[in-house]
Queue: 2 jobs
Job 1
Amino acid sequence: MRLSRRLVLAAALAPLVLSAAVPPARAAEPTSILNASYDIARELFEAINAKFEPSYKAKTGKEIKVNQSHAGTSKQARSIVEGLEADVVTFNQITDIQFLVDKGFVAKDWQTRLPNAASPWYSFPAFLVRAGNPKNVKNWDDLVRDDVKLVFPNPKTSGNGRYTYIAAYAFALEKFNGDEAKADAFAKKLLSNVVVFDTGGRGATTSFVEREQGDVLITFEAEVISAKEAYKEKNFQVVVPPVSLLAEFPVAVVDKVVDKRGSRQVATDYLTWLYSTEGQTIAAQANNRVVDKEVAEQFKDKFAPVRLVKVEDVFGGWDKLQKAHFVSDGKLDQLFVGK
């Protein structure tokens, strides 16, 4: 009787002893990653992923699928904090990645991990006007006239729209020799001339080119050129203002997610590939201005000259700009005229 009880007890303890002796199996490396990106980058990353996936397999022997999520980057950042498991972000505004840093999702040193402060290409706000440019729009001054109606995304939800607001404000500061009150009035008039505030850049493009709202679409130069090319029958014209604001496109690994999923290596490889000759060429073909000098030289004829000012030079950096303009009850809230 005692022997049978001992056998039963031994049988019950055996799995526990075995599990303690054998280390837990390592989680399988993911076969897919998610890139959370800005709204107008759909076609760009479709082209990039179509080349990266076979390149990654040829290099590592492993299959990988890069899935995409697109929206205004401020919305994307909030979605990640709320549970969207994006392995990487490819945004159009530094402050939205900083939001993820502040929430513990991205490491503080993210800008030192990749070349050019982790920005593989750049653009700036430019204008798309209707055939023949009937309102004779040439510069930011023309956008505050009473007879000119505008379309650009909501600066409260879109990095794209925020860049337009910042670029206009920077232009006004220069025009009025730093007179902030006059710059405020200029920005408020610009915002009041907007006929529709879509939540993201692609929605704004759709409102202008398909719904035929407004006289001028303001969005990144890459989207302006792409829209002109896609709707050739409408004879839109691209207007590059003499001066605009540098728009960087920062990228980062979402550390909290990749550590959970075991996807750090492939996520890092993906972002690194954006700086390769092939990645830079695809970005330039999609009308972005790239940082690789040789690739940029090949595509220089497709881009008009422009003088670009920087947030650091005009506003003292993103931190100061954020605190002055984009916090609750900041400058944007004071000047914003919602539709």
Note: The longest strand covers residues 32-37.
Job 2
Amino acid sequence: MRKLKILLILFLIAPLFAHAQDKAYEKGEKVLNVGISLGYYGYGYFGNRTGFTLPLNAAFEYGITEQISVGPYVGYARWAYEYNVGAGNTKYSWSFLAAGARGSFHYTEILNELTDGDINEEKVDLYVSLLMGLEFRSYKDDSGFDYYDNDTAFRLGANLGVRYLLSKNVGVYLEGGRGTFGWLNLGVTARF
């Protein structure tokens, strides 16, 4: 049974190490970014923070042309607080779930051609992304008063990104601009 589990694991991760493309981004590319968002506007202005989840995000993209990729994204964050009201404590929390679609324009090759540059296209993928989706915000407290309503908001944002490959299938990424939640997204990239 143990050998079967090991074979199954090797079968599942083998595509991560079998990539044979020459550029950091190409048509047909499948990329998974998993990371955190920083610089997110927040709620919870009163009391002491008692718990939180860093804003986590994941985005999958598929290369439909040599420069354009599209795919879904999701994100989750949560904050919890506690503060004194008279003789007791009140607890409240915010939860956020974001989901939508994103499209990216990959321009490393074009930039090299236009500027006669020598950015390493095997390691570096420069891109700009447009995100469009919904953000679901949920509020809970134990005070008996509903200070805020649960809310759904439409989000549209753009960011400028760079992906750097550490190997043919694994890398890191950094995005600045209005991403899944915050103004700075960073994390790990897997290519398939």
Note: The CA atoms of residues 33 and 47 lie 34 Å apart.
